[in-house]
Amino acid sequence: MKSTIKENIEEKLKQELTIEEYEKFTLLLEPLTIQKKQQLVTEDRVCKYLYFVEEGVLHSFLTDDNGENHTIQFGFEGHWISDLYSFVSNTTATFNIEALEETTILAISKSNFEKALNDIPKFERFFRILIQNAYIQSQHRIAKNYSDDAEHRYLALIKQQPDLLQRVPQYLVASYLGIKPQSLSRIRQNLSKK
Amino acid sequence: MKSTIKENIEEKLKQELTIEEYEKFTLLLEPLTIQKKQQLVTEDRVCKYLYFVEEGVLHSFLTDDNGENHTIQFGFEGHWISDLYSFVSNTTATFNIEALEETTILAISKSNFEKALNDIPKFERFFRILIQNAYIQSQHRIAKNYSDDAEHRYLALIKQQPDLLQRVPQYLVASYLGIKPQSLSRIRQNLSKK
DNA sequence: TTACTTTATTCACATAGGTGAACGAAAGCC
DNA sequence: GGCTTTCGTTCACCTATGTGAATAAAGTAA
User: Fold this and answer.
1) Distance (Å, rounded) from C-alpha A177 to C-alpha B186?
2) Chain B 155..184 CB hits on strand D (< 7 A)
């Protein structure tokens, strides 16, 4: 189940890292473990790290003016997660990031991130590809939100990630789909009748 | 009104390009002009370029299973636009890109793009920052779509881009907001009563 | 100018998803 | 083991937005 950062980088670069590159990079990472319900990032504080999930799950969410939470992203093994705007611009975060189970993480601080970009040429490319993939996904998510109703989005989601409901509570899946838990219940009820 | 690519790059890099860098880069670009309603990218064909808008406006949109169009993005002067997934993976595009008025563009092909990444070190960084900003924006757009209703999204949009309705027809603004033209009409009517 | 097409408005009615409450089941805790 | 909190379901009712049609206004072409 554990995901290694070396494989993650090599897979995106479609190229192996040399031992020196990997060791140089490893020195810049800070391992940490957080418990279920602990927050890694809290809105109104600056998000000072990028996080790579080795094992476990996190979610990033936004608390709106009515105090409701909206899950923007899940971070499973092998994902990178952060409040990127807060990280790059040193402003207070708009998202919270919280563990959904005990999670082991590798964190890279902004100064170490910049060191990596400058000292390890491949790293700038790696990070470009990482963000590029994330951006493509988010464009498609916006597109699907426009063209599909909640039932279709739910079906597409569990098709793409069949174990999702085993790993995270249903009300967070509803939130990620942009609907209320009751509505997801209703949708599942309708589907089971078909 | 015209936007220059040199300024666009330097602004993102927060650093000036040398004359050599700029000239090397310029050689990789293909200028073109397209007329209103012409398509730059068509779904089901591969998108072979990244496009920088010098002057004019484009929009990218998706045609759904009911034949309805959903505007995903507007590309004004100074914006880059493409079907990035199609471009990077050489698969057929899911989005269309069409001019909303006569538009002048600089296009960079995939092979030239790769040449730029490899030959001009700053370019990899520039492109990383470009995508990073786009990704941050799209994350915030997803978040706002979850927490705000159409009226709030409309108000936020015209506040952020007050000339939008002068440049593009209202039904495209509605589409971008994820609602029907009639609904935007109704929202505007309610607002004018307040 | 006239004619034709595209865009915006308004209305009556339909529907997906939201709301708040009640209830039971499951999970964590002492 | 029982107690308490969290989670999922169901229901009756509500609301924002969609639908389809009619009409007007604006834009374009001849």
Assistant:
1) 26
2) 178-180, 182-183
